[in-house]
Amino acid sequence: MADFVTTASNILDLLGIRVVIPKELKKLAMPRIAIRAEAKGKGERISYLSLDAMLDFSWEIAIGDKTISRDEFLKLTRSAKGIVRFKDQFILLRPEEIKNIIDKINKPLPRLSSLEILHSAFTGEVEGMLFNPDKAAKGILNNLTKVDNIEIPVDLNAQLRPYQERGFRWLYSNTIRGFGSCLADDMGLGKTIQVITLILRLKEDKRLNSPVLVICPTTLVGNWHKECQRFAPTLAVSIYYGTERTLILDGKDLVITTYGILKRDIDKFTKRGWGIVVLDEAQNIKNPDTDQTKGVKSIKADSYIAMSGTPVENRLTELWSIFDFINKGYLGEVGRFQRGYAIPIEKYRDRERADKLRRATAPFLLRRLKADKSIISDLPDKVIFNEYCYLSKEQTALYKEAVDAIMKEIEGSKGIERRGLIFKLITSLKQICNHPVHYSKKGRPLKGLSGKAEKTMELIEKILSAKEKALIFTQYKEMGKLLVDMMREELEEDALFFHGGLPRTKRDKMVTAFQEDDSHRLMVLSLKAGGTGLNLTAAVNVIHYDLWWNPAVESQATDRTYRIGQDKNVIVHRLITIGTFEEKIDEMIKAKKELVDLTVATGEQWITELSNKELKEIFNLGR
User: Fold this and answer.
1) Cα(first)–Cα(last) distance of the chain, in Å?
2) Please, what is the angle between helix 393-411 and helix 415-434, to 10°?
3) For residues 491 and 312, what is the distance between their CA atoms, to the nearest angstrom?
4) Distances in Å between the alpha carbon of 69 and those of 58, 66, 477, 581?
5) Contact partners, residue 113, CB within 8 Å, separation at least 6
6) Helix H or strand E encompassing 614
7) Which of 501, 484, 504, 502 lies closest to 493, judged by CA?
8) CA–CA separation, 109 and 125 (whole Å)
9) Is there a contact between 219 and 455 (Cβ–Cβ < 8 Å)?
10) Can you tell me the distance from the alpha carbon of 355 to that of 440, in angstroms, rounded to the nearest whole number?
11) What is the mean pLDDT for each group of 10 consecutive residues in the chain (623 residues)?
12) How far is Cα 574 from Cα 546, in angstroms, rounded to an integer?
């Protein structure tokens, strides 16, 4: 009878032979093993570290939408097999399947860690079996991932957007409970300020018992330092970087270093515990087998935070590696993860598995996209970021050489001659900060020779991966050509190059191609030729490779895309080289913002009126 109902009737159906079966028999329930979790008592302090002690576990059997205890199932199967009526439904009891279930439930329950219990609660299964928490147990588990309505720190020198406030509260709630977090907001939504806000609040709450360690690419060290100074000046920050680096921890709230330095000096970081380890651009640990990844994961901390706009670039094991850092053991061993999630999803597009993975990762992974309407309404029309870069060794040597040589001439000159020499020095230093090849006019424009070039290639790579378009402005036609060459060599991308040497008809065709053809995603523009009169709203990203130091000129260039007809938020990146005259002049302009139209309306002319002492302070390397 059982075989007929489950198999033969289907075959007869296919042959066109009508089979009349009671509707109750058409939906036979199959018994499945489940683990029941019950809260032990009331009033205990909720902590994920003691979940296994707060819950009692027992075997039970799920039949359809109902469950019975182990003893009830054993009693049912002693005297019955085949199709059996159970309450208001029929169940199918096959001898071989019953034997497997009984063998399993006669063994001890699996020992689950606290993180495994949480994973089971969110996915509804454990080791292929159902996981059934009772109402009280569900309450405990839900409280562990509830986002607290915590206040913004009083010393934060910024107005967070609503989605950033939500991100901060989510980070805070996870951190104080000992969980790690992956903040995966889209590029340009302000991941750094959300983490800085968290650190500041932990300090105010006296929960920061050890310094926070921030590990980031070299191109982001300056950004982190600057944003801490700007938004959280009460945080004591130390940078561990450079040839004469010293790890200073006394009285420090936050230490910034790079992946490369960490790999070389790993012993210094593993000898002590940290409050939080923060990974910026956490895709740097996407390969779990590299020495860099193993080194990062060997550092001990109270909590871990990964920041990445691309938590999965190519394979799901990249996501596993990030979770192995933030909440070790939560997604199991990598082999088990591949069998349970990666292979079914990547190879077979298993939607059920994908949904389980989303449910499992949701409490610890927060991702907001610029394309999301609720996020867009929170963003201003134009978001401006200063992107801070360091000079390479080659740039540093050239910079010092140029300052030493030309400053001697400036000190011995007057009038028009002096102004001319200052402009000569400005031009030389700008070219050196751009790229050594721009200054020397020889060699290949490798990105590694320039901190600014390296940063730009990194930004463009992210923009391309987001399938967006970008404008890249430079004052110099020569530098524009070098950028086009670098993009072709480093990113295999052919950028359009808009400059003063192009005839009008070619310019018009280039604008049309950029606006209407999706294969053209990048346009490099010389500032004078492309700074006004163009409509390039297809781009939502603007990179100012070298600054003009005239806010009006800069704004006019940005307005090629930020104008009527633009229906997306525009992200503007201003590249500034740390420790050089670029940084110092930018700070001077900020300091006298109210006089900007009077003092810098003609670009760099105002710099020539400074004294020799002021010029030395601006042009010499360092602060």
Assistant:
1) 88
2) 180
3) 20
4) 8, 10, 78, 75
5) 52, 329
6) helix 612-619
7) 484
8) 14
9) yes
10) 56
11) 47 49 61 90 59 86 86 81 73 83 91 89 90 88 88 96 93 94 88 97 96 93 92 96 90 96 96 96 93 96 94 88 96 94 88 89 88 66 90 95 92 89 92 97 94 96 95 96 96 94 88 94 92 85 91 82 82 95 86 44 53 81 71
12) 8
β-sheet with 301-307: strand ranges across? 237-239, 254-258, 212-216, 274-280, 301-307, 181-183, 365-366
Instruction: Tokens for 14, please give them.
Output: 């296919």
Q: How far apart (Å, rounded) are the C-alpha atoms in residues 366 and 615?
A: 47
The rounded distance, in Å, linking the Cα atoms of 295 and 263 is 6
pLDDT at 600: 35
Left if phi > 0, otherwise alpha if psi is -120 to 50, otherwise beta: which for 238? beta
Asked if residues 281 and 216 have their Cβ atoms less than 8 Å apart, the reply is yes
Q: Are 232 and 305 in contact (CB under 8 A)?
A: no
Residues 244 and 392: their CA atoms lie apart, in Å, by: 15
What kind and span of H or E run contains 228?
helix 218-231
CB 146 within 8 A of CB 177: no
Instruction: Supply 204's token pair.
Output: 């105010």
Cα–Cα nearest to 473, from 557, 552, 533, 384: 557
- Three-state SS at 77: helix
Q: How many CB atoms lie within 10 A of CB 189?
A: 26
Dihedral angle over CA of 44, 121, 149, 380, nearest 10: 170
User: What region, left, alpha or beta, does residue 313 occupy, with left being phi > 0 and alpha being psi -120 to 50 degrees?
Assistant: alpha
> What is the C-alpha separation between 511 and 195, in angstroms, rounded?
40
90: left (phi over 0), alpha (psi -120 to 50) or beta: beta
Give residue 604's identity as a one-letter amino acid code.
Answer: E
